[in-house]
Design a protein that fits this description.
The protein has about 130 residues and is mainly alpha-helical. It is rod-shaped and about 90 Å long. Helix 1 runs antiparallel to helix 2 (about 70-125). The chain contains two helices and two strands; from the N terminus they run H-E-E-H. Helices cover about 85% and strands about 10% of the residues. The protein has one domain: Helix Hairpins (Orthogonal Bundle), CATH 1.10.287. It has helices spanning about 1-50, 70-125; strands spanning about 55-60, 65. It has a two-stranded antiparallel sheet with strand order 1-2. Belongs to the prefoldin subunit beta family.
Length: about 130
């Protein structure tokens, strides 16, 4: 019985490690989006300071190409909207992974108690 519990415990630990690995990857993605959002907000603020006749250039490869100010503002706003949507999606994923981790911790705690009880019973019989 203890061998079966030990094997099951190992499987549950592996599941928990996989959840933690996925959680860390999502957190890293979330942090990257935060920095992109900050950068795009700064660009939007700078574009909003410009007069309507100002020259705006976009870097495409090694070349600076003139771009319409309104088009540049629209592009930045679209990027900000996209990043905000991705951030919300990742927040939901983080919340779901938190719940999975909590559930897995509880399962591991119960298995650990069962394993300890089985070891105590085995020790009493010996």
């Amino acid at each position: 019985m203890a061998d079966g519990l030990q094997k099951r415990m190992q499987q549950e630990v592996e599941k928990f490690k996989a959840i933690q690995k996925e959680y860390q990857a999502v957190i890293n993605s979330r942090q990257q989006l935060d920095s992109q959002l900050t950068e795009n907000n700064g660009v939007r603020d700078e574009l909003n300071l410009l007069e309507s006749d100002a020259n705006v250039f976009k870097l495409i490869g090694p070349v600076l190409v003139k771009q319409d100010l309104e088009e540049a503002r629209q592009n930045v706003n679209k990027r900000i909207d996209y990043i905000a949507g991705e951030t919300k999606r990742l927040d939901k994923t983080i919340e779901d992974l938190d719940k999975k981790q909590d559930t897995q911790r509880e399962a591991l705690g119960k298995l650990q108690q069962q394993l300890q009880q089985a070891q105590v019973k085995a020790a009493m019989k010996a």
